[in-house]
Amino acid sequence: MNKVRIIAATVAASAMLTGCATGPNRNPNDPLEPMNRAMYKFNDTVDTNIAQPIAKGYQKVTPTPVRTAISNFFSNLGDLGNMANNLLQLRITDATQDLMRVAMNSLFGVAGLIDIATPAGLPKHHQDFGLTMARWGMPSGPYLVLPVFGPSTIRDGVGRAVDVRFNLLNYIEPAARNPMYIAQFISARSDLLGATDLLKQAALDPYSFVRDAYLQQRKSLTYHGQSASAAAPNYAEPGEAGAVPAATPTMPGGLPNYEDPGESGGTPGGASGAAPNNAPAAPGLPQYDDPGADSAMPASAPAAAPVGASAAAPAAASAGATTAPAANGAPIAPAMPTVPASSPAAQ
């Protein structure tokens, strides 16, 4: 009977744990949370009792310039891996900058002890094979906490195994390689002491904080700081559906195009003295009509005779004379009498 009760209690406890692991607050990116929390606790214990004391002692006995030089040295070696992954991602500009960083820091920075490339305008790109696989379209998989290495994913865990091949330390003799690996680990842990103190002070749940921060950082690095849902540029033709309407044309040089206000609603040619709408104008210039054009002669009226011809015509006509009938037989109004030059009105 006691065995039955023990088995029933065990089943109930298992059901409760399963319910907690699949509850509404469960992160969908972390289906292995119970195992990951146990591994996180193990890593935190090792870090608190071993790694942190060594890093604090290293930071205490080593001057800041020396620590900076050691960190720069390992960072310079890492730029070779960054260059290789940028080439695999077809980021040619970033790969070229990584190569220039290695050349400049190795030649002029005393084998990478001094970082000259960053002040010279060559930024450092943080790449690894996990990001390369993300660039190729491979999903990250569930969140995973690795022993000693800490937060990761299934994809990034596989990438770590490949990144070892990009590290030049892997190709030197073990007698020199192993101490340099230890020095690299201590230097990296020393640089993160400030972040550890902030984590313990600010985070209510350090595990969730580290997990969410890691996943967000990897997402940002995958898209180079851009949103994954950023709209792609529109390459459609102007006449196609979805194309962006063309902007209103302007004059050369960016000047606005001032059209004649009367062009759109102008009267037909011959209705007034204004030029017809299809009359040519100076290219790119507005057309200004004569304000008195409304009382001018119709556009169909014959042009006036030359001045010389009018001067040669007989000056005087009889004051009471009448004109001959018109060709159609209709009388024409008598012409106005001319005023003699000696008349007072002419003066």
TrEMBL record:
InterPro entries: MlaA. It comes from the Bacteria. Residues 232-347 are annotated as: Disordered. One of its GO terms (biological process) is intermembrane phospholipid transfer. Residues 236-250, 273-286, 293-336 have a biased composition (Low complexity). Keywords: Lipoprotein, Signal. PROSITE patterns: PROKAR_LIPOPROTEIN. Residues 263-272 have a biased composition (Gly residues). GO terms for cellular component: membrane. Pfam families: MlaA (PF04333). Residues 1-21 form the signal peptide. PANTHER family: INTERMEMBRANE PHOSPHOLIPID TRANSPORT SYSTEM LIPOPROTEIN MLAA, LIPOPROTEIN VACJ-RELATED. Belongs to the MlaA family. This is VacJ family lipoprotein.
